[in-house]
Amino acid sequence: MKTRVCIIGGGPSGLMLSQLLHLKGIDNVVLERQSREYVLSRIRAGVLEHGFADLMRTAQCGERMDREGEIHEGIFIAHEGRLDRIDLHKHSGSSVIVYGQTELTRDLYEARDRMKGIVIHDAEDVQLHDVSSDHPYVTYRVGGESVRVNCEFVIGADGFHGVSRKSIPKDVLREHEKLYPFGWLGVLSRTKPVSPELIYTRHERGFALCSLRSQVLSRYYVQVPLTDKVEDWSDDAFWTELKRRLPREVADRLITGESIEKSIAPLRSFVAEPMRYGNLFLAGDAAHIVPPTGARGLNSAASDIYYLYHALIAHFEKGDDTGLEQYSAKALARVWKAQRFSWWMTNMLHTYPDSISYEQKLQQTELEYLLSSNAAKRSFAENYTGLPF
Ligand code: APR
Ligand code: PHB
Predict the structure, then answer these.
(1) At 227, is the secondary structure helix, strand, or coil?
(2) Is residue 53 part of a domain?
(3) Residues 210 and 221 in one domain
(4) Does one domain contain both 108 and 166?
(5) What is the pLDDT, as a whole number, of residue 44?
(6) Would the N or C end of the chain have less CB density within 10 A of its end CB?
(7) Residue 316 pLDDT > 90, yes or no?
(8) Is the pLDDT of residue 25 over 90?
(9) pTM for this one?
């Protein structure tokens, strides 16, 4: 098989790039290790910044997002039994859209189907070859058959556990990682959300978050030690713990119900540099991970796709390679800002098992400063709704 761009990974990053390139007439193929059902059963955060929403519209996939997604102009921060609101729109002129990532991925798949885009599922043993040459190729197996894809560019959009990043030689790749000493236990329930806007909670027992997917589907999280197992958490135990961490008036109106999904996710900050090696370009989770606290994961992927899309178009349409040459540096500059914000917000709101009283006082002061200063709120709102690309 021959194509211009071989995209590894059929998550939001890979599908979005595939769709954008196809709309410009650039031939591409997506190789996805899992089945479509599996990809669409993954539950992930659902806060989109305006830059990502704009990309969805450019990709002609924004219709359902614009119809069903909810525009949120503020978030709440709960602490010391109180609820404070940060008006994102007032402080940044911008807002976010709450729209499940699963739904967004479904929209991208449907758009790829409508355009008869090539997305190969169950692609096993994907391997990258000669990416530092002008004739890279990718091999994989499907249904026992081996296939070779000759291409001009390989895009590694295959998430944190993918094969692309690992194809960059060890003496070229630098990895920066921070692991946090806790995870998030998340529950999805078919109940009316406790609040129309997200509530981020700082509490001595640990962080908690009240989020939502729609007016009938709620998503809640509590910080747990990494040693906890999801089997040890009954629904009742989860709701009891969540209520203990929320301000009384919020806990009193929380509607509980059976969990339809329950899982524990560890928190990680990670960046791999550079994001280009020859004709291989990394994008999204393949190159960087943030803890979910600032809802930056998908949004960090969005800027990669934006830069990469424009760079590839300039290459194919005008023979201009400036964008490709600058891709890694440009993408990383924004990635690190999202890293900083996610790390900062995680530190401010979580309980650290070994923290000393001095650090706890600083954490509290950081939050008090944020909630009492318009300059700090503006900075928060600018980062939360998305820095410019
Ligand atoms: N070969 C082919 N596909 C692979 C391989 C492989 N060796 N390894 C992983 N994949 C696929 C995964 O099955 C997955 O569907 O690559 C896809 C990567 O998708 P995501 O992990 O969703 O990553 P990305 O598309 O970059 O999405 C951005 O940012 O923080 C997150 O929650 C956020 O999921 C969102 C992500
Ligand atoms: C979610 O809805 O899953 C969610 C929302 C905001 C976050 C993290 C997760 O910061």
Answers:
(1) coil
(2) yes
(3) yes
(4) yes
(5) 84
(6) N
(7) yes
(8) yes
(9) 0.96
pLDDT for the residue 46: 86
Count structural domains, the chain: 2
- Structural domain that includes position 186: 181-267+354-385
What's the confidence (pLDDT) of residue 43? Answer: 82
- Which residues does residue 142 pair with via DSSP β-bridges, in sequence order? 145
Nearest to residue 51, comparing CAs of 317, 307, 286?
307
Integer CA distances (angstroms), 206 to 29, 181, 183, 265, in order? 44, 12, 11, 15
Q: Max CA-CA distance within the chain?
A: 63
Under 8 Å between Cβ of 208 and 220? yes
Percent of the chain with pLDDT strictly greater than 90: 96
Burial of 81 (0-12, 13-18, 19+ CB in 10 A): exposed
Query: With contact defined as beta carbons under 8 Å apart, do 88 and 74 qualify?
Result: yes
Of all protein residues, the one whose alpha carbon is nearest to atom 3 of ligand 2 is 45
Mutational test site, ligand 1, from 20, 285, 299, 308, max ligand atoms within 8 Å of CB: 285
CATH classification of the domain holding 364: 3.30.9.10
- Kindly state whether residues 38 and 170 are assigned to the same domain: yes
> Is residue 213, in this structure, part of any structural domain at all?
yes
Residue in this structure with the two tokens 């729609």, named with its chain if needed:
214
Does residue 76 lie in a domain region?
no
Query: Contact, 66 vs 173, CB < 8 A?
Result: no
pLDDT reported for residue 74 = 98
Residue 177 and residue 270 in contact, taking contact as beta carbons nearer than 8 Å: yes
Q: Are 53 and 112 in a shared domain? A: yes
Structure-block tokens of residue 330? 């440009």
List ligand 1's pocket residues with C-beta within 6 A. 8-14, 31-34, 39, 44-45, 101, 123, 126, 157-159, 161-163, 284-285, 297-298, 301
CA distance 154 to 96: 32
State pLDDT tens for residues 166-215: 999 999 999 999 999 999 999 999 999 999 999 999 999 999 999 999 89
CATH number of domain containing 39:
3.50.50.60
220 found inside a domain: yes
Which tens digits make up the pLDDT trace of 97-124?
999 999 999 999 999 999 999 999 999 9
Asked if residue 376 and residue 342 are part of one domain, the reply reads no
Structure tokens at 327: 């891709």
Q: Domain check: are 360 and 283 in the same one?
A: no
Identify the residue whose C-alpha is closest to ligand 2 atom 6: 295
Whether residue 142 is found in the same domain as residue 208: no
